[in-house]
Design brief:
The chain has 22 helices and 22 strands. With about 675 residues, the protein is an alpha+beta fold. The strands form 5 sheets. Strands 14-18-19-17-16-15 form a 6-stranded mixed beta sheet. Helix 11 packs antiparallel against helix 12, helix 14 runs parallel beside helix 15 and helix 15 packs antiparallel against helix 19. About 10% of the residues have low confidence.
């Protein structure tokens, strides 16, 4: 029976990408000249693990490249080669190449063979140079060993390896593990066939054998365990050191004169004086064991299954809301008991909902981990000294949000490095340290998450931004704009103050992408800056895209949901607060500014209870850095609602981001405040 190894490819790629991230992080921490040995071991284990997995699955190009990489790492691990800037750069490039190779194989696309070959040649050149500088081994060992010379002090290990019966069916090959171990040290293998069944009962996919291995060479226990990592959960593994026994000391003269005496003499007593040969009893074996059990504390579950679970929980929340609303109408002796049961159901549903949401939560360190390498490379290219500071890395948010926030953060960090942080010379002239600081921070704020990207550079040049905006007709020559309004200009499509474009900046596409991506996530971005002190960009995001905290409002017989993150204030207008401006429609005075009014009944074609502004309510909402007033009949209350996509099931509607099902079974539209603001602007322009 042939085992289909393709079923294990997804797990291999996922684990390999995670391991490469760990390898890159360790490389960035390496001190040139005096590296920490454990960091070298971590890097070596990653390369060795990827090589073994690639060989198992037949990815020969990856296995060949990682073999060359592993050879170089073995030189570093053994201390025979120093960690130089050249070597450090080669290793970082190797991470990039390995990541590209894995992605190509995963997507069934051709590998960039020329790029791989060039780097592999560079690796082998570095190794060859080291070997050329090293003296031949014979130069130090040409003398024959004499009697009484110290024996080889390499450590020796005993490994008891007992696979579970289903190990081979799961894609693990014991012989491959032994070959991998043999590349690291000398291995002697002894098989245990006691549990082997009769020939007619043997199933080809079952494993009935066990092995005892003795390993000798320059190898540590952690490296042995790394080899057997692939069999985790499929075997019992016991690793223990074999104590070295000191040899008998025999005087050289008597050893030459009486060779037979050494074999025939009785064993000396333990109390023999120090002048003679003694053999002490071997010390008790200190056994260090590792038992790899099937229950490893975690399992891998596809995102699709979690999404299905989340959707089911959402439907249950809606059903529970319907039952609660229906239960309020019952009367009689059992009505209170029914309502108590429904209240308990509501509590249980909320706990279940929160538990499922936590399954999708991941720490933002998965995104932050990409920046140390990026900052290092950009600082080197721009000739700047930059220190990256990361805080709040364990702050968790939904996996979908996590995946989509990466690109906006990359743009912001690149802008901080390129535009914000000055050159070392300018910083020293301004009384600052030569090295600038870029700080990424994540924290929870109520039901949202705030991600801040800040720097201690020169700050945004308000005068230059405003001049560029007036030059392009984005602001009038006499317009008096506040600082927040000026900072909002940098998010306009194509806006840039850079005179000369480079491969890093100047095309005016970065900040526009940031604003659009953040808005698609239901979030907002705010800017603070101080001349000479630096800038801070704060992105506020919902923890999840599946559920939104909203304010229910009514317009006639319809109910709408306004996301709480967009609401500034709700108020009842007076006649004196409302004006009608040419080209602006209805506006009202709010904290020194005039805000346009959007009548939701007119926008959605609904008959309202009243058309008189001071008889209804106005909800002041914010989006894209601007504010509007939404005229509604009344406010119902705040609630968490499960978002249903309209675009997937119906089509795109301006001003609407989705829909939800209320407790009475009716559908309520979830409003898109930035979209409503765009509608107001287009109507004013028309």
């Amino acid at each position: 029976m042939t085992v289909d190894l393709t079923q294990f490819h997804a797990a291999f790629f996922e684990e390999s990408f995670e391991a490469l991230d760990a390898m890159e992080a360790a490389l960035l921490k390496l001190d040139v000249g005096a590296p920490e040995p454990e960091l070298i071991n971590t890097i070596f284990r990653v390369a060795h693990s990827i090589k073994g997995g690639s060989a198992t699955f037949g990815f020969s190009e990856i296995a060949s490249f990682t073999h060359s990489l592993e050879t170089l790492l073995d030189e570093l691990r053994g201390g025979t080669m120093p960690v130089s800037p050249e070597v450090s750069e080669l290793l970082l490039r190797s991470v990039d190449v390995l990541r590209a190779m894995l992605r190509a194989v995963q997507a069934s696309q051709p590998i960039d063979a020329q790029r791989v070959s060039d780097l592999q040649f560079d690796l082998e050149v570095v190794i060859a140079r080291r070997n050329a500088r090293s003296p031949p081994a014979a130069a130090t060992t040409d003398a024959a060993p004499t009697a009484g010379a110290a024996p080889d002090s390499s450590p020796r290990w005993q490994i008891r390896f007992r696979p579970y019966r289903e190990m081979i069916a799961r894609g693990n090959d014991p012989l491959r593990l032994f070959r991998e171990l043999g590349e690291l040290a000398e291995v002697h293998v002894q098989v245990d066939a006691q549990t082997l069944p009769p020939l007619e009962d043997i199933q080809p996919q079952d494993c009935h054998l066990a092995w005892t291995l003795e390993v000798a060479g320059r190898i540590c226990e952690q490296e042995i365990r790394q080899v057997f990592d692939w069999a985790e959960g499929d075997c019992e593994l016991v690793i223990q050191p074999i104590p070295a026994e000191p040899p008998e000391r025999v005087p050289a003269a008597s050893a030459a004169a009486e060779p037979a005496a050494r074999h025939d003499a009785p064993a000396p007593p333990a109390s023999r004086p120090a002048g003679g040969a003694t053999r002490s009893e071997p010390p008790a074996k200190s056994e260090s064991t590792l038992t790899v059990l099937p229950d490893s504390g975690s399992i891998r579950v596809s995102v699709e299954k979690i999404d299905e679970l989340m959707n089911t929980v959402g439907e249950l929340v809606i059903t529970q809301a319907m039952l609660s609303q229906l239960g309020g109408r019952f009367e009689g002796p059992q009505a209170e008991q029914l309502r108590a049961g429904l209240a308990q159901l509501e509590r249980n549903m909320r706990e279940l909902q929160e538990s499922v949401m936590r399954v999708r939560m991941l720490p933002i360190s998965f995104v932050f981990s990409r920046f140390p390498r990026m900052v290092r490379d950009l600082a080197h290219r721009l000739g700047k000294q930059i220190e990256l500071k990361l805080t709040g890395e364990q702050t968790e948010l939904d996996k979908t949000v996590l995946e989509k926030i990466g690109d906006p953060l990359v743009h912001l960090v690149r802008n901080c490095i390129d535009h914000g942080i000055e050159s070392p010379e300018k910083r020293l002239a301004a009384g600052k340290s030569a090295a600038g600081t870029v700080h990424l921070d994540a924290s929870h704020r109520g039901g949202n998450i705030a991600v801040q990207v800040s720097d201690d550079g020169g700050g945004l040049d308000k005068t230059r931004i405003l001049a560029k905006a007036r030059e392009r007709g984005l602001a009038g020559p006499n317009d008096a704009l506040s600082d927040p309004q000026i900072y909002e200009l940098i998010f306009l499509p194509g806006f840039s103050t850079v005179e000369k474009t480079t491969d890093l900046s100047g095309r005016g596409v970065g900040m526009d992408v940031v604003r659009r991506n953040v808005k698609e996530l239901g979030g907002k971005i705010e800017v603070e800056s101080e001349a000479g002190r630096g800038s801070r960009f704060t992105i506020t995001l919902p923890l999840t895209l599946a559920i939104v905290d909203g304010q229910s409002v009514t317009v006639g017989t319809e109910t709408y949901i306004v996301p709480l993150i967009s609401i500034v204030e709700s108020l009842q207008l007076k006649d004196t607060q409302v004006s009608r401006l040419s080209g602006q429609g209805e506006v009202f005075s709010f904290r020194g500014n005039y805000l346009p009014i959007i009548r939701l009944h007119a926008l959605f074609g609904v008959e309202p209870r009243t058309r008189v502004l001071h008889e209804g309510l106005v909800v002041v909402a914010e989006g894209d850095g601007r504010r509007i007033g939404l005229f509604v009949d009344d406010l119902l209350g705040q609630q968490q609602v499960v978002i249903k996509s309209l675009q997937a099931n119906y089509g795109h509607i301006d001003g609407v981001s989705g829909a939800t099902i209320l407790g009475d079974g009716s559908v309520a539209l979830i409003l898109d405040v930035p979209g409503l603001i765009r509608i107001a602007s287009m109507r004013a322009a028309a």
